[in-house]
Amino acid sequence: MREDLLYFIWKHNKLPTENLRTGNGEPIQVKALGTQNSLAGPDFFNAKVEIDGQLWAGNVEMHIKSSDWYVHHHETDENYNNVILHVVWEDDIAVFRKDGSQIPALEVKHYVSGKLLEGYRNLMDNSRINFINCEKDLRSVDSFLVENWLHRLYIERLEHKSELIFNLLQSSKNDWEAVLFILLAKNFGSKVNGQYFLDRARRLDFSIVRKTVNEPLQLEALLFGQFGLLNVEECSDSYFLQLQKEYNYLVHKFDLNEPSSKPDFFGLRPMNFPTVRVSQLVNLYLKNHNLFSRLMELNPLESIYQMFEIGAGKYWEDHYTFGKASKKSTKKLSKKFIDLVVINTLVPIKFCYAKHTGRDWNDELISLMSQLGGEDNSIIKNFDKMGPKTQNALESQAKLELYTNYCVKNKCMQCVIGAQLLNRNT
Fold first, then answer.
1. Considering the entire predicted model, what is its pTM?
2. How many CB atoms lie within 10 A of CB 399?
3. I need a surface site. Which of 37, 128, 235, 274 has the fewest CB within 10 A?
4. Is the pLDDT of residue 52 over 90?
5. Chain segment 285-300, per-residue pLDDT in tens
6. Is the pLDDT of residue 134 over 80?
7. Which 3-state string (H, E, C) describes 64-127?
8. DSSP letter at 152?
9. Cα dihedral sign for 408, 409, 412, 417?
């Protein structure tokens, strides 16, 4: 038994309309269910309940046991002074407000239908599933309902991603260009080195990037050095030595904090080596000054692809690491990589910038995500086995949000799909 079943029962009006009584035997009539609260405080705001002929307006709190009121220390919290009804599965103890008055309790276990409980147990029975609770029933849910839910989930995912962005914005004193640089660095680090690149980019004062962006060798030296790629022993390569010399000059000039660790190469395909990715990041900034402003102005996907039509520097045409020649190849950003930049950096930062400036770009961003192909990973593959097949990046991102923050946490009653499945069987 979980509290979210109590939320479902109350929100979807699954209690009988007659013969409800408090633990003290007083008749109850629910006039208005109120609005569910997803933040701190009582579970439902602005409810209206008639108890023993007296109409009360206020909040409703829910617990598995009424004694949980004291476990959660609500008796000392001013936010719970206006609770008019305590909805519980088991009324095991009387509960009192801070002023000493008793809060009426509604014990619901005697009023909930056996059919609803059976449907809930079947949905939450993890022993019969391999991936998610509703995997056997997902195909039967109305496609229009699923589509709308996925759109809402994608906005939730953007909200979660915006937490990092607004934290970065605060620490950079509202420097959007600096925030973009940090996010791009994380993106260019990919899964293996993303966190390392993020940490290094956060430690680098972006004003130094601005000062070196018109000097290609200095910008290369700055980023290769700050991302731990010049910590190579016994390399006599002339290009490497030139970068190292320039970097040592920048370290003294700007009092740079030097890295004590290096990014990983192990397990990476050569095109994803951090040396190649840093060179591509350098060329992105050499090609595009005021990158943030330009990206905020871009709408058509094709114009975004054009902006990111870059490769690594000339040295890297026949190298993947310093001092070791390889077969010559042009190392341009692939369409798949640019799509990931759009998904993980461009759209989230545009979402945050729109919120910051009071604009509504949601439709534009949803349209942009709908033009990108869906991501290919084990989670999306499992969803596709159940159907329908993921059509675009918006759906794949929404499904990742669904899996991570609902399915894995068994929050089926807070999921539109889970609620629909339980609703139609009760």
1. 0.87
2. 23
3. 128
4. yes
5. 999 989 999 999 888 8
6. yes
7. EECCHHHHCCHHHCHHHCCEEEEEEEECCCCCECCCCCECCEEECCCCCCHHHHHHHHHHCCHH
8. H
9. negative
